[in-house]
Amino acid sequence: MKLVRYGETGKEKPGIIIGEDIFDVSQHVSDYNEDFFGDNALEELKKKVEGGWLEKVEKPVRLGAPLTRPSKIICVGLNYKDHAAETNAPIPAEPILFFKATSAIVGPNDDLIIPKNSKKTDWEVELAIVIGKKASYVEEENALEHVAGYVLHNDYSEREFQLERNGQWVKGKSCDTFAPIGPFIATKDEIEDVHNLRLWLKVNGEILQDGNTANLIFSVPFVVSYISQFMTLLPGDIITTGTPAGVGLGQKPAPWYLKHGDVVELGIDGLGSSKQHVKSYEA
């Protein structure tokens, strides 16, 4: 299934995509949150959808992030060799982990707001994992049993805040609107091979990132297992798995970054695409 949330900001309803259409499932599900993913409601929803009538949602309609209020967003840094190379960083021996504030989450096509005093707002197309079952000290061979599905994520980063302002990376990762997620969560059965998905990103129509999840340094099951050794993963938690080469920080002959009026488009095979219009912060 493909899970979506649609409607005005803060008033989204749960839905599913069938073909090209969105159908309302709010009569079956209150929302796509920790309770939903943790109570086996996904399997129950599949049964209800197969056996019942659903109301089609009239387009156009705004899409929100396809899940709400995850307990955490855990990010894996430098998980593609070409991205490590373009940033002059060594290949990590173990996954580099950091957090992104959940308050950064917005819908897939909502505006990107360049933060106040930002000069180096950057883009990063990423495959994200949605946890479907509580995971603590999970073995790698069992890790996918704890995955509900996958989703497109743009891990926006303010490089000055991240790299030049001391402390952890979280300051450069957590600004409002820095986590557009969606358009939908694809359940595991929708994705034939999660380690063979093209992911791409354009700025103003120019392809800048064009990679494949086959080039992940640390695989999806390894990442889930690894993180679960350090913290409990709860249903609905998001793990975002890193970005391929082509970010603003790695541009040659010199880095360049987003400005007001730019348009960012990105996508992943089987996970759809999204578009963000870039706007400057206004008080």
Question: What can you see in these coordinates?
Answer:
This protein is of the alpha+beta class and 283 residues long. It contains 6 helices and 20 strands. It folds into 2 domains: 2-63, no CATH class; 64-280, Fumarylacetoacetate hydrolase, domain 2. The strands form 4 sheets. Strands 1, 2, 3, 4, 5, 6, 7, 11, 12, 15 and 18 form an 11-stranded mixed beta sheet that branches. The termini are far apart.
Question: What does the main sheet amount to?
Answer: 11 strands, mixed
Number of helices: 6
Order of helices and strands: EEEHHEEEHEEEEEEEHHEEEEHEEE
Low-confidence stretches are none
Protein name: 2-keto-4-pentenoate hydratase/2-oxohepta-3-ene-1,7-dioic acid hydratase (Catechol pathway)
Keywords: Metal-binding
GO molecular function, one term: metal ion binding
Pfam families: FAA_hydrolase (PF01557)
Summarize this, please?
The protein has 283 residues and is an alpha+beta fold. It is built from 6 helices and 20 strands.
